[in-house]
């Protein structure tokens, strides 16, 4: 695509008005515009002519913008596809971007946004524009559902994903349940050269010994009791693609040994069969326990660990990246709006405060579920506190209880001067720490181990702080 030539744009939209508006506006800005009103006509047009950009409505009669992208693939066109979508369908646009759309614009149109999209070609380090259908363009970091994260730690992880995806390295993803390990694995696959082949997930956490081997490698009929048919294993299913093994630490030792052999030899044999099958599979594994410690305690094979440990990604729990909470909440709400055809605009300030202070033990999954639930129940423009589930409202009550009341529950002896009304940093920090400890203790019913876990400190440190803030007598009493 030559930079200085007039750029050619194809608009595919079954709404004549949209076609007319875009035609008029883009022609005014010196683009050469063609308009067609169906997916089929669009494809025919692309067979005849090369366009720099294709504006494609997401809903096109019986087809979708995603269908058009699929239909264009065999033409290997270098056109950049921009999906047109209504605000309530923003999640759809997110999916389109993930599947390789260049960008999306929202209806009603903001004309300066359209020009921005056209004037900001994505360039790689050498200054070349990316071919949109090749899917090599880095995801715009603020527009995709996957990247509805704004914390620096997640941005860094995103860069790591971009770096590691095109290689065949095995990746270990660590993180608590619900932190997004599978999403990361899918993203690595999506950005890899294997993206047109299967991504096959297998949860090893729930598999017993015999079942684990059979799920991974398959079996032939009669090879063990219950093997009533031949069965394809996940390795075969993932051939040429990616196999994602969740909770790998739970695999029984003999299956770990077989797994290592298959990875090393790139050959797989169904249980009970003598036939070796070639397998070309990239492995990504996830665990919420440290596999290095697991091999040190003999629970995991050391040689398998070293074979898998080519690259490591640590996904922090949501409570350690609070900057992500509200952007993820907005993203999940947009999903709910889309699914339920609602138009909830956001969250009450109080709800946002609760979201920020709540420790989210179930991480993103819990946040998503809370928003799905409250979105379903909401009949208003905003989500109110009353729609939050019990654990959040209880937490909020503990968190916002007047300090005096809480202190009554917790007799103060040798307390640090928490009533210091001065604004010096030290007393401010002390007061904040004390408040958070009290909130957390209340939340976990004064269970110190759980509180220490949520506060991300060890029990000893928690006790020291309880002493420091004059809360120790309460802690002691509970201990007995
Ligand atoms: N970056 C993200 N943006 C939007 N949604 C996300 C993101 N990461 C995860 N999610 C959503 O959060 C939920 C949990 O994610 P996922 O299943 O990947 O977590 P996990 O760590 O693999 O969980 P488990 O360990 O329990 O299997 C899913 O519904 C997923 O769609």
TrEMBL record:
Keywords: ATP-binding, DNA-binding, Nucleotide-binding, Phosphoprotein, Transcription, Transcription regulation. It comes from the Bacteria. SUPFAM superfamilies: CheY-like (SSF52172), Homeodomain-like (SSF46689), P-loop containing nucleoside triphosphate hydrolases (SSF52540). InterPro entries: AAA+_ATPase, AAA_lid_NorR, CheY-like_superfamily, Homeodomain-like_sf, HTH_Fis, P-loop_NTPase, Sig_transdc_resp-reg_receiver, Sigma_54_int. The modification 4-aspartylphosphate is found at residue 57. Residues 151-376 form the Sigma-54 factor interaction domain. Residues 8-122 form the Response regulatory domain. This is Sigma-54 dependent transcriptional regulator. It comes from Danxiaibacter flavus.
